[in-house]
Structure formats: C-alpha cells, structure tokens
Write a structure and sequence with these properties.
three-stranded antiparallel beta sheet, 4 helices, 13% helix, elongated, FAM78
C-alpha cells in the first residue's frame, strides 16, 4: 500500500510536536532536592599550632589541642514544593583511647564502654541537645520551600579538646602529684548532610575523617609549671575529605552522645577497676 506524500508530511508533523511536547515536559519538570543541591566547596583542616599545656592549677593539669575545622559552601536552586530541609554537620567518634598514668600506681581512663567492647562502631558527637547535629548555630542551615531564588550558604564547625587531669590519683584523698603521662588517640567521622524535616530522608553530601593524637610526659617531682612536656605530635595529621561518601551509622544519629556516655575508670596496677565517674546517660 502506497502512502501519499501528504500523509507522510502529516505523520512527521505529529511526531515532531509530540517530541517537542516531551522535551518541554522534561524541561519543565522541577528537579528534586536530591538532584538540585550542590556542594560548591569543602574545606577541612586542623590548626598547625601544637597542643598547649597549662600548669596554673595545683589541682589539675589542663591542655588544649589545636582545632579541627570544617566548612562547606552549598547551593540550593529554587525549591518548588512545601518542603523543609536542614543542611549541616553531623559527627561521630569511631575510636577513643584516653589514658592518664600515675607512675606504678595505675592509670585513669575515659572510656566509651559500648565502643570499647565493639558493641557499636561509632557514637554520636552531637552537642547533646540538637540531635543529630553537631550544633545549631554556624553548623546548620534550614531551607523552607517553596523558594523562588537560589539559596547559597556556608555551614561550618570546629572541635578540640580542653580537659583537666588531676595531678594526684583520682580515687585518693591526697593531692600529692603522681601523674606521669597522658596519652590520647581519638578518631572521628564528620558528615555534611541534608535531612528532610518531614520524611527524615537523609542525603550524605560529603564525608570527612580526622584524628587527634597526643603524648604528654610528666615529671611529678618537678615544681609546678615545669612538670609537663609535649612529646608528640607537634603537628597533627590533616583530615581526609573522602572521594566516596560513607553511610552514617545509626548510633551517630541518636542519643546518647559521647560526652554523656563516657565513664572515668581507675585501673590500679593490682586489683579491680573502679568507676570514678559513671556515664550521665
């Protein structure tokens, strides 16, 4: 059966406009938040200054580690629907060793029992109020749709350690200086995340790993102000911004956080361990 040129022309016109209609519908369909959000820049570092030591107190030695810092510039094109998203930083502790030795008497240690015993692989490092976020000031930004313009913002966070360690054995009434060494080694994973406030949908946008180590040698026989010396490291390893994102463990999103779950133990040279400060949670 032969088809006339007029019929072929009509067929091509119909196909053409159908194709144009499909193209228009694809172009006009708004992108989802998942497809449209973009991270323009991520910066992460640990300050180059060494850990500082403070011997101003006759009761405790204090030290302050350099700060870990992370920031990200984020772009969110117009949000068509009535959606609310929060973008920000979530952090979890993956490993903790924190030992304070007192000569031949024993040592005290801050411990996370479930992490120590391998029951969990990470624990939330939230501020303890705004779960799962590390904080709710510079650390997060909330976008409430619908929006008509691009939304650009920066979210940033910082973290460091500033503990106090008793000169004397923590389970003794005596304040005689016997502290001889401090060792600390902690690892963290920090995620840049977007969470839908209605559904709980979670998008991991960036993953950062970092570690803080220190060794302080102490001579308790020396005068106050001359006892402690930073051995290593003078400069910390710089954080890693991962090429491939990691999933967030469930424990990193919920209570308890590391501060509330940690316990201070006294582990004598001989005898059973003693709980000095129980967990808050």
């Amino acid at each position: 059966m032969r088809v006339s040129p007029e019929v072929w022309t009509l067929v091509w016109i119909v196909l053409f406009f159908n194709a144009m209609g499909c193209i228009q519908s694809i172009r006009c369909k708004p992108k989802s938040f998942r497809e449209s959000i973009s991270v323009l820049e991520v910066n992460s570092s640990i300050d180059p200054n060494p850990t500082s030591i403070d011997e101003s107190s006759s009761v405790v030695l204090r030290y302050r580690t350099p700060h870990f810092r992370a920031s990200a510039r984020v772009l969110v094109p117009p949000v068509a629907g009535k959606e609310t998203w929060t973008v920000g930083w979530i952090q979890a502790c993956n490993h903790m060793e924190f030992y304070n030795k007192y000569g031949n008497k024993g040592m005290s240690s801050w411990e996370l029992p479930d992490l120590r015993d391998g029951k969990i692989h990470a624990i939330s490092d939230s501020d303890g109020v705004n779960y799962p976020w590390y904080g709710n000031t510079t650390e997060t930004c909330t976008i409430v749709g619908p929006t008509k313009k691009d939304t650009r913002f920066t979210v940033s966070m910082n973290d460091n350690f500033y503990p106090s360690v008793t000169w004397g054995v923590p389970v003794s009434d005596s304040n005689v200086p016997q502290l001889s060494s401090i060792r600390r080694d902690q690892s963290f994973t920090t995620w840049l995340v977007a969470i839908h406030q209605g559904t709980g949908e979670t998008l991991v946008l960036q993953t950062v790993r970092w570690r803080m180590q220190l060794h302080i040698a102490v001579d308790p026989d020396k005068p106050l102000g001359q006892r402690a010396r930073l051995c290593d490291p003078v400069a910390q390893e710089q954080p890693q911004v991962l090429v491939k994102n990691e999933a967030i463990p469930a424990n990193a999103m919920v209570k308890p956080n590391a501060n509330d779950a940690q316990v201070l133990m006294w582990r004598p040279k001989t005898g059973d361990p003693i709980v000095v400060i129980p967990p808050k949670y």
